[in-house]
Write a structure and sequence with these properties.
Chain lengths: 144, 247
């Protein structure tokens, strides 16, 4: 039950965030769904580094794909679609431990957070490399 | 103004707008080159960075024109990037003359900023929803909404005070923790979900994404610049929170 509430919250959070950044209206639903999909994947894989990587990869691939179908820039979708998996909680916990003077745990959680961010970036990189250079024939302008 | 002059003006404005809205560097470069070509100036070079660009074009009459543009203020506006993108596509499809394109871009640039109240409401709702996502309940939702709303309401003040954008992260971190703690003390609730929820919308997701995309395009300088921006922003935001937690 709690998970369902969290997933609904994730969908809305992604939508509000996208709107805050000025995303066009017709992209909001797609980003919300891709964001939700990434977050569910992340939860299913137990929040490990692999989870960060795979949800970054899948979200990246979906965004590249939908951007081409919609003939819009990929970034429009990507930025809010990956926000649910960006480790805000890890950042907060790191700071909690720093504030408490528990540097050993701060270092552990902090490293985990940084590696997580790196893993998302790596996933996105691979997604861009795989689809990023394919161009649909009718789509001959600066559309990636 | 002669036609070539206007064409150069269009290209400069398009590239400038993309960079000002935190678009990718390669997008600014590609848009400029493609537009130049469509306007009949095939010999064009542009070198763009997140903080400015240099454009050199050979005009049809044989003279070379060079423009240097410094990008002073950057903000995030994905909608405007999209609009410029579609203007540039129509230019490339030869649907717009330089004069028409200039008018369109001018009109897009003169659009007023999104209303402040709407931005406050969106930030508040996003912060609240993130708090629930991190396991918060009803109390956490409302506290995050309130704190998030105030954080966004303070943004215009930073612009007015000409606060460097990196310091904005620090101050926002301080606000997030400093406002949440007393409210949590009064109403109860989980500190973890509220504070992480309110800082979520400020995490540099855009800088990180663009760092990856610029690097992948071989734009190493811009990639490094953006990666540094993302890292420093995240660290300062966290430091702001930590300062308050340590008190």
């Amino acid at each position: 039950m709690e998970i369902i509430v969290q997933c609904i919250a994730c969908t809305f959070a992604t939508m509000f965030f996208g709107k805050l950044l000025g995303q066009p209206r017709q992209t909001l639903l797609y980003t919300a769904l891709i964001g939700l999909n990434g977050y569910v994947l992340y939860l299913l894989l137990g929040g490990s580094t692999l989870a960060f990587f795979l949800s970054g990869l899948v979200s990246g691939l979906l965004c590249e794909l939908i951007a081409r179908l919609q003939r819009m820039a990929t970034t429009l979708f990507l930025i809010s679609a990956i926000i649910p998996v960006v480790p805000g909680l890890g950042l907060y916990r790191t700071m909690m431990f720093v504030a408490a003077g528990d540097y050993a745990r701060a270092l552990a959680v902090g490293t985990e957070t940084l590696v997580g961010i790196g893993a998302i970036a790596l996933g996105l990189t691979i997604a861009t490399a795989v689809i990023g250079n394919i161009r649909f024939p009718s789509n001959n302008s600066s559309s990636t | 103004m002669e036609r070539a002059e206007i064409a150069v003006q269009v290209v400069v404005l398009a590239a400038r707008t993309i960079l000002e809205c935190s678009g990718e560097t390669y997008r600014a470069e590609e848009t400029a080159i493609l537009m130049c070509r469509s306007f009949g100036m095939s010999d064009a070079e542009i070198m763009a960075f997140p903080t400015g660009f240099t454009l050199a074009v050979r005009k049809p009459d044989g003279t070379t024109e060079t423009r240097v543009m410094r990008i002073q203020h950057r903000r995030i506006n994905l909608g405007l990037i999209n609009d410029i993108n579609s203007v540039s596509r129509r230019v490339v499809a030869r649907e717009l003359t330089p004069e028409q394109a200039l008018d369109e871009i001018m009109a897009l640039r003169s659009h007023p900023e999104p209303p402040m109240l709407r931005q406050i409401a969106l930030f508040a709702l996003a912060a609240g929803a993130f708090a629930v996502m991190f396991g918060g309940g009803v109390i956490e939702f409302f506290i995050s909404c309130f704190v998030g709303g105030i954080m966004q309401a303070c943004m215009p003040l930073y612009t007015k005070a000409r606060l460097p954008s990196l310091l904005v992260s620090l101050v926002s971190g301080v606000l997030a923790a400093g406002l949440s703690l007393p409210l949590l003390y009064v109403f109860g609730g989980s500190q973890e979900s509220v504070i992480s929820g309110t800082i979520m919308p400020l995490l540099p997701g855009l800088a990180m994404t663009n760092a990856v995309r610029d690097t992948m395009r071989g734009d190493l300088l811009s990639g490094m610049a953006r990666a540094t921006e993302a890292l420093v922003n995240a660290v300062l935001l966290a430091a702001g929170v930590a300062v308050v937690l340590m008190l």
